[in-house]
Amino acid sequence: MAVVISASDVKKLRDQTGAGMMDCKAALTEANGNSEEAVTILRKRGLASAAKKAGRVAKEGLIAHRLSGDHTSGILAEVNCESDFVARTPDFQQLMADVLTEIEKKGDAANDEWLKDPNGPIQQRLTPVIAKLGENMAVSRAVRYAGQGYVGQYIHPGDKVAVQVEFGGVTPAISGRPEFATLVKEVAMQIAAAMPTYVSRQAVPADVLEKERGIYRAQMENSGKPANVLDKIVEGKLGAFYEQVVLVDQLSVRQETKQTVGKLIEGVAKTLGAPVTVTRFARLKVGESQ
Asked: Which CATH architecture has domain 7-53?
């Protein structure tokens, strides 16, 4: 005797799994009304659906972001899909929130390997949404800062570009001052606009510097200039390189008076009476990791 599948049973399964009404009804019918078995059937079909779509490029999407109220921790995660239309749906928005929650729960162990584990919690979050919305999706990268300083964020309108920056030397008294709030915004927007690679000159790897020096020397190979003069020219060109890739050496994009970001930070630190510094930062733009 066939089991009667009620509309309320179908709705309950749909609310539980996010699958379509017809898919839920078919799964319940196949499972003879057993909701737990129906969930398993839908999950299996969801996995098959995800596998079929895995070869398609997910280069659209948004940067999911979360910042704790006390600014001791922050998370950015690039969540990709195939179209901007899907990125704006409530299901995708919920997926981003769920991804952030999983990263938050995992803490320091939320590394790239964990993020892309096909049997891990991130994939378990992705699979039913892929099945429901019909697009391939992925979490291509994530950045989490916690417990080492004051964390600030800048999210560019549209959620396609996001910056997370961490400051050291910030006391609770300083964190509430408007001068510091302005500094955080200025530095984060600087990173968004000027795209530095390193916090300081000391952070630039030695092999990167040697490569740059080699390029500059090769450019002047037949100049006939003495070695000591060439060395000075190379170091001068290296200074221009620092101005491009090192945050504190960049000219501030938000200041009418021409000063470096380093001088800007020093000036605010003097006003605050504390050795405020930028310790690390991350800039995520949708599609750059593809």
From this structure: Orthogonal Bundle (1.10)
